Each structure stands twice: as structure tokens, then as C-alpha cells.
Amino acid sequence: MTDAARADVVIVGGGPAGASTAWALARNGVDVLVVAPAPVARSAPQIGYVRPSAITLLSEMGALDAMRSAGASPVTQLLLQATSSGLPDEEVTAALPANGMTIDRAQVGAILRDRARAVGARILEGVRAHDVLRDARGRVSGVRVQATRPDPAQPLLGVHTCGARVVVAADGGAAGIARLSGIAPRARTTRRLVYRMHLSGVGGVGASRALHLFADGCCEVVTSRDGGATLTLVVPGQVAGAATLDAEAYLDGWLASHPRVSACLGAARRHGARRVEGPVSAHSTHAPRSWAPGIALVGDAAHGAAAIGGDGLHTALHGGVTLGSYLFEALRAPSPVRADHALEAYERSRRHAFSARWRTDALVSAALTSPALFARVARSFEQRPAMTDLIGGALDGLVPARMMVRPGVLWQLFGPPPGRQGFA
Fold first, then answer.
1. In the 3-class helix/strand/coil scheme, how is 83-133 assigned residue by residue?
2. Distance separating the N- and C-terminal Cα atoms of the chain
3. Are 17 and 34 in contact (CB under 8 A)?
4. Backbone CA torsion sign across 234, 240, 243, 245
5. Model's pTM, two decimal places?
6. Which of 58, 96, 253, 420 is the 20 to 30 A CA-CA neighbour of 66?
7. Dihedral, CA atoms, 66, 72, 73, 79, nearest 10 degrees?
8. Pick from 45, 44, 39, 67: nearest CA to 54
9. CB-CB contact of 299 with 169 (8 Å)
10. In 3D, which of 289, 304, 280 has the Cα closest to residue 340?
11. Sheet architecture: strand order including 217-223
């Protein structure tokens, strides 16, 4: 039994962000060790939407065939429906083109860990990193770990410390390792709550994605071809006070008062509910920077992804592959100072790649939690058909996010209909 392990890079977290970083490093010959809790058995699949931009990265990683075998199904349309009693017409519906797919989120992590193993990464499952190690200069030099689910077959069961030249925090929005390293995520107070429920036995829908907007919330339903589904509800600030801490009771009551959504789910079996975090929630976080001496952040540990829309997987994969290239340069650096320069370059690259996306997501989040505002957008699809391809491409990540914040595009979305001088 050993008390210590050593690697060039130790990655805390075996989800998509951690696994993609491990893959990017290991394929270039870097000694990588991933430490992650054991997978949790779930009573229902957790269906998520995968954007085309993420599909491209998954293809580069050689993961698409495994994902299709695991049940990934193509989605060709996003259905949008907005309802507000304050509008002349009660309901506005629009169908946008989509080019993504749906899959069980748990399958994605497992497949990407297998891809990382295939190129030489070591995966240590069933352990939790609970502290950071520092060298004499205060630089992060590893992590302390403890078993969460002892497995006699685990070859590194006795490991208590994992030393590394660089540690990667990929442990999600809680970002425990990032906090311990001194990169404390800042809380946002956007006064919105996010609830999520998983279901099975949804019939007659197939692989699909739909957004339903009401005065008291925006609801996204993503369904797989075998009847699994995930419902995500974003509750706007003006009704957030009515959202109880009992997530299951609140969602059951909300569905009972919105028959359009409950009718889509039919007699599906519900597998509990929980309140989650994200940029549109009341308690989301983002780190002020994505690195410190000896450590780098990636995925939700660096910046929470939007609660709806499939942005999380794209951000995790793109961030992981990007970080991998900069870590490769950091490991080749002749001194710790030069290594830090590579991590600083990663921070600049990350902000350049995602800043426009973050602004667009904030705009979309605002529209999605205002039925009257989004209904105006939906009507612009009817009056300006070319906008459907543009918005569909933007939501799928195919259209550059910076295009969505151009004044002309915003005017076409939110301005008066053609031939009208004022708002409807």
C-alpha cells in the first residue's frame, strides 16, 4: 500500500471538463492522474442537449461512436412557445432549426474518461480531494485525497497525497479545490431560481427539445428517444419568493398549474427534483480568474454554464482542450515563473473565447425569463423568417455569439414589426 502518488498534472474531477483536459494532455505524452468520486447510481437517466459545437469536439476525441451506442439521438428542431395573458394573442409558437443531439449526461462523463484512459491517462475513482498541498514558496504542488467508496480492486487505494507540477480544478461549480487554493468564486445575485427534475417513460415524443415560457417561469424539456427526459425550470425574480425550498413539491405544483407542459410529459414517472445552480440562479458563482501559481480552473469551476441550452458541455470540452495546450507549454517552461506565464495566457484565451458567449447567454437568460419579451422575439420569427436560422444557429453555437449583440440584430429581434413605427 502506497501513501503518495505523483504525476505531471493532477486533475480533480472526472466529468467532461476534467476528462477532456486529461485527454488533451495524455495524447501528447503528459503523465496525468485524474482523481474523482465514484459514479453515483441513479434511478433515471439525466438527459441533456449536446450542441453541434460540442459534437465536433467529441468527434475529434473519438467519442461519437460510443455516444451513439449509449443512446445519443439527433435533434433537428427546437420548439419555442411563449404565453402571457398580457399579450393580444395568448400564445406564440416558433420552430427553430437544431443540429444537436440528446444523451444521458452520466454516459458522457464515462465515455470521456474511457477516451482519456485510451491515450494513457490514469483515472483514480472513488476518492475525494479535500485539501491542497503547497511547496515552500506557497505554490500549489498537489492535493490530499480520501476514499469515498473503498474498492479492493483499486490499485491506488492507499494513496493519501497526489503530488503534481500543476493541479487542475475541474470539480464543478462548488469549486472546493479552487477555494482552498485561494481562488474564491464570487457569488452572483441574479434573483432567479433553477429547479431540475428527471423523468422516465415519456411516450410519443422521441429525441426532442422544447422551451415553454410563462409569466412565472421558463421550462426546458429535453427528451431522449427511449423516453427519458429532464425538465429544467427557471423561476424569475418577481415570483422567486413563492418558490419553496421543497423542490419536488414546488415543481409538482408548477406542473399542475401548467397543463401544456404536463400534457407533454403524460404519465411519465418522476424521479425527484432538486434546486440547482447556474448563471441564472440565485447562488451561481464565477471565479475572478482561472489560475493561481500551480493550479488552473476549467469548466464550471471557472465559470458556471447556463442552466438551459446545452452550453455546459461545450464550455467543458472547449475549456479542457484549450487548457491542455497551455498546460503542455507550462510543463515545458524552464522555470515556475515561465509556467505561470503560460497559465496567464490560458486565462486570456479563455476570456477571448467565451466572453461573447457569456454576454449572449445573459441576454438569452433575460429574454427566457420574460414571456412578453420573448413573445416579441417569437413574433419576429414569423415576420422575419431569416431570423430563425440566425437564432437557431446562435443557440446551437454555430453562429458566433458576437453577432447576436450587434445593434442591427437586436433591433430586428426586439424592435417593431416591419412597417410599424412603435411597439406592438
1. ECCCCCCCEEEEEEEEEEEEEEHHHHHHHHHHHHHHCCCEEEECEEEEEEE
2. 73
3. no
4. positive
5. 0.84
6. 96
7. -150
8. 67
9. no
10. 289
11. 47-50, 91-104, 73-83, 208-214, 217-223, 229-235, 193-200, 269-276
Q: How confident is the model at residue 332 (pLDDT cuts 50, 70, 90)?
A: very high
- Beta strands (DSSP E) in 148-188 are 161-169, 186-187
Mention every residue, 6+ apart, whose C-beta is less than 8 A from residue 113: 14, 19, 22, 34, 36, 123
Alpha-helix residue ranges (DSSP H) falling in 134-236: 176-180
Cell of 194: 433553477
**pLDDT tens per residue across span 269-297:** 988 788 775 444 434 445 578 899 999 99
217: its cell numbers: 417561469
DSSP 310: S
To the nearest whole number, what is the mean pLDDT of the chain?
A: 80
Helices marked H in 153-243 — which ranges? 176-180, 237-240
